[in-house]
Design goal:
Helix content is about 45%, strand content about 5%. By secondary structure, the protein is mainly α. Among the domains are: about 35-105; about 120-170. The chain has a two-stranded antiparallel sheet with strand order 1-2. It is elongated, with a radius of gyration of 29 Å. The N and C termini lie far apart (about 75 Å).
Length: about 180
Protein backbone atom coordinates (compact mmCIF):
# COMPACT_ATOMS: atom_id res chain seq x y z
CA UNK A 1 0.00 0.00 0.00
CA UNK A 2 1.29 3.46 -0.89
CA UNK A 3 1.02 6.31 1.60
CA UNK A 4 1.26 10.04 0.92
CA UNK A 5 1.94 12.80 3.42
CA UNK A 6 -0.84 15.38 3.21
CA UNK A 7 -0.89 18.28 5.68
CA UNK A 8 1.19 16.42 8.29
CA UNK A 9 -0.93 13.23 8.01
CA UNK A 10 -0.20 9.98 6.30
CA UNK A 11 -3.06 8.82 4.10
CA UNK A 12 -3.25 5.98 1.62
CA UNK A 13 -3.05 6.82 -2.06
CA UNK A 14 -6.57 5.52 -2.60
CA UNK A 15 -8.01 7.82 0.09
CA UNK A 16 -6.07 10.77 -1.31
CA UNK A 17 -7.35 10.22 -4.82
CA UNK A 18 -10.93 9.98 -3.54
CA UNK A 19 -10.60 13.22 -1.56
CA UNK A 20 -9.44 15.23 -4.56
CA UNK A 21 -12.16 13.74 -6.77
CA UNK A 22 -9.67 12.08 -9.06
CA UNK A 23 -11.33 9.67 -11.43
CA UNK A 24 -9.34 7.38 -13.67
CA UNK A 25 -10.91 7.32 -17.11
CA UNK A 26 -11.03 3.88 -18.67
CA UNK A 27 -9.07 3.64 -21.90
CA UNK A 28 -11.00 2.29 -24.85
CA UNK A 29 -8.90 0.98 -27.71
CA UNK A 30 -10.44 1.09 -31.18
CA UNK A 31 -9.51 -1.22 -34.00
CA UNK A 32 -11.42 -0.11 -37.08
CA UNK A 33 -12.02 -2.46 -39.98
CA UNK A 34 -11.46 -1.22 -43.52
CA UNK A 35 -15.25 -1.00 -44.09
CA UNK A 36 -15.75 1.07 -40.94
CA UNK A 37 -12.84 3.32 -41.88
CA UNK A 38 -14.30 3.83 -45.39
CA UNK A 39 -17.71 4.68 -43.90
CA UNK A 40 -16.15 7.21 -41.51
CA UNK A 41 -14.23 8.84 -44.38
CA UNK A 42 -17.49 8.97 -46.34
CA UNK A 43 -19.11 10.74 -43.36
CA UNK A 44 -16.42 13.42 -43.54
CA UNK A 45 -17.27 14.13 -47.17
CA UNK A 46 -21.04 13.73 -46.75
CA UNK A 47 -21.82 16.04 -43.81
CA UNK A 48 -21.06 19.68 -43.11
CA UNK A 49 -17.98 20.56 -41.09
CA UNK A 50 -19.88 21.68 -37.99
CA UNK A 51 -21.94 18.49 -37.82
CA UNK A 52 -21.67 16.25 -34.77
CA UNK A 53 -21.28 13.25 -37.05
CA UNK A 54 -18.16 14.81 -38.58
CA UNK A 55 -16.68 15.40 -35.12
CA UNK A 56 -17.47 11.82 -34.11
CA UNK A 57 -15.96 10.48 -37.33
CA UNK A 58 -12.78 12.51 -36.82
CA UNK A 59 -12.43 11.30 -33.24
CA UNK A 60 -12.84 7.68 -34.32
CA UNK A 61 -10.44 7.97 -37.24
CA UNK A 62 -7.74 9.55 -35.07
CA UNK A 63 -8.31 6.95 -32.33
CA UNK A 64 -7.78 3.93 -34.58
CA UNK A 65 -5.11 1.62 -33.14
CA UNK A 66 -4.53 -0.11 -36.51
CA UNK A 67 -3.01 3.00 -38.06
CA UNK A 68 0.10 3.92 -36.13
CA UNK A 69 0.41 7.53 -37.33
CA UNK A 70 -3.17 8.52 -36.45
CA UNK A 71 -3.16 7.23 -32.84
CA UNK A 72 -3.41 10.18 -30.45
CA UNK A 73 -4.03 10.72 -26.76
CA UNK A 74 -7.34 12.16 -25.58
CA UNK A 75 -5.77 15.48 -24.60
CA UNK A 76 -3.96 15.93 -27.92
CA UNK A 77 -7.04 14.93 -29.91
CA UNK A 78 -9.31 17.23 -27.95
CA UNK A 79 -7.03 20.22 -28.52
CA UNK A 80 -6.76 19.36 -32.23
CA UNK A 81 -10.51 19.09 -32.77
CA UNK A 82 -11.60 21.81 -30.34
CA UNK A 83 -13.65 19.64 -28.00
CA UNK A 84 -13.17 18.38 -24.46
CA UNK A 85 -11.24 15.25 -23.61
CA UNK A 86 -14.41 13.94 -21.95
CA UNK A 87 -16.14 14.12 -25.34
CA UNK A 88 -13.33 12.09 -26.90
CA UNK A 89 -13.62 9.43 -24.19
CA UNK A 90 -17.42 9.39 -24.47
CA UNK A 91 -17.28 8.83 -28.25
CA UNK A 92 -14.69 6.06 -27.86
CA UNK A 93 -16.77 4.36 -25.18
CA UNK A 94 -20.01 4.52 -27.15
CA UNK A 95 -18.26 3.16 -30.27
CA UNK A 96 -16.90 0.23 -28.26
CA UNK A 97 -20.37 -0.49 -26.93
CA UNK A 98 -22.56 0.18 -30.00
CA UNK A 99 -20.23 0.07 -32.99
CA UNK A 100 -21.34 2.01 -36.06
CA UNK A 101 -24.79 2.26 -34.47
CA UNK A 102 -23.71 5.53 -32.87
CA UNK A 103 -24.56 7.25 -36.16
CA UNK A 104 -28.13 5.95 -36.20
CA UNK A 105 -30.75 8.35 -34.84
CA UNK A 106 -31.86 7.61 -31.31
CA UNK A 107 -35.49 6.75 -30.73
CA UNK A 108 -37.32 9.35 -28.67
CA UNK A 109 -39.36 8.03 -25.80
CA UNK A 110 -42.99 9.02 -25.83
CA UNK A 111 -44.79 9.94 -22.65
CA UNK A 112 -47.38 7.23 -22.70
CA UNK A 113 -47.29 6.93 -18.93
CA UNK A 114 -48.64 10.37 -18.12
CA UNK A 115 -49.41 10.61 -14.46
CA UNK A 116 -52.55 12.69 -14.71
CA UNK A 117 -54.92 11.54 -17.40
CA UNK A 118 -58.43 12.75 -18.26
CA UNK A 119 -59.94 10.82 -15.35
CA UNK A 120 -57.76 12.64 -12.82
CA UNK A 121 -58.44 15.99 -14.49
CA UNK A 122 -62.20 15.33 -14.29
CA UNK A 123 -61.95 14.54 -10.56
CA UNK A 124 -59.90 17.68 -10.01
CA UNK A 125 -62.39 19.89 -11.86
CA UNK A 126 -65.25 18.34 -9.92
CA UNK A 127 -63.42 19.02 -6.65
CA UNK A 128 -62.80 22.64 -7.58
CA UNK A 129 -66.48 23.16 -8.37
CA UNK A 130 -67.54 21.88 -4.95
CA UNK A 131 -67.40 23.93 -1.80
CA UNK A 132 -64.16 23.57 0.16
CA UNK A 133 -64.20 21.29 3.21
CA UNK A 134 -65.14 22.55 6.66
CA UNK A 135 -62.65 24.97 8.16
CA UNK A 136 -61.29 26.17 4.79
CA UNK A 137 -62.40 29.36 3.10
CA UNK A 138 -61.01 28.44 -0.34
CA UNK A 139 -59.35 25.47 -2.00
CA UNK A 140 -55.56 25.49 -1.72
CA UNK A 141 -53.20 23.42 -3.83
CA UNK A 142 -52.16 21.37 -0.82
CA UNK A 143 -55.78 20.78 0.12
CA UNK A 144 -56.55 19.59 -3.42
CA UNK A 145 -53.54 17.24 -3.29
CA UNK A 146 -54.58 15.78 0.03
CA UNK A 147 -58.18 15.31 -1.13
CA UNK A 148 -57.14 13.55 -4.36
CA UNK A 149 -54.93 11.16 -2.40
CA UNK A 150 -57.64 10.63 0.22
CA UNK A 151 -60.19 9.76 -2.48
CA UNK A 152 -57.60 7.36 -4.00
CA UNK A 153 -57.71 9.05 -7.37
CA UNK A 154 -53.89 9.16 -7.44
CA UNK A 155 -51.24 7.55 -5.25
CA UNK A 156 -49.40 10.80 -4.64
CA UNK A 157 -49.68 14.38 -5.83
CA UNK A 158 -47.58 17.49 -5.51
CA UNK A 159 -48.95 21.04 -5.42
CA UNK A 160 -46.89 22.03 -8.46
CA UNK A 161 -48.28 19.19 -10.59
CA UNK A 162 -51.83 20.05 -9.52
CA UNK A 163 -51.12 23.67 -10.42
CA UNK A 164 -49.98 22.58 -13.91
CA UNK A 165 -53.16 20.56 -14.45
CA UNK A 166 -55.28 23.50 -13.32
CA UNK A 167 -53.36 25.82 -15.61
CA UNK A 168 -53.97 23.45 -18.49
CA UNK A 169 -57.73 23.40 -17.81
CA UNK A 170 -57.88 27.19 -17.25
CA UNK A 171 -59.33 26.69 -13.80
CA UNK A 172 -58.31 28.84 -10.83
CA UNK A 173 -60.05 27.68 -7.65
CA UNK A 174 -58.23 30.33 -5.63
CA UNK A 175 -60.22 33.21 -7.08
CA UNK A 176 -63.61 34.00 -5.64
CA UNK A 177 -65.15 34.88 -9.03
CA UNK A 178 -63.97 31.72 -10.70
CA UNK A 179 -67.24 30.17 -11.83
Amino acid sequence: MIFIKVSKKLVSLQQYLLTINFYIIAKYKLYLSSEERAELLANLRKYKSNSGKVMTSQILLHSDENVSDSKMTSAALSSLLGCSSKTVERVRKSFCERGMGIFEPTVRRTRSDKRYDARVEAHLVALCCQAPPNGAANWTLQLLCDTLVELEVVESASPSSICNVLKKTNLNPFRKNNM
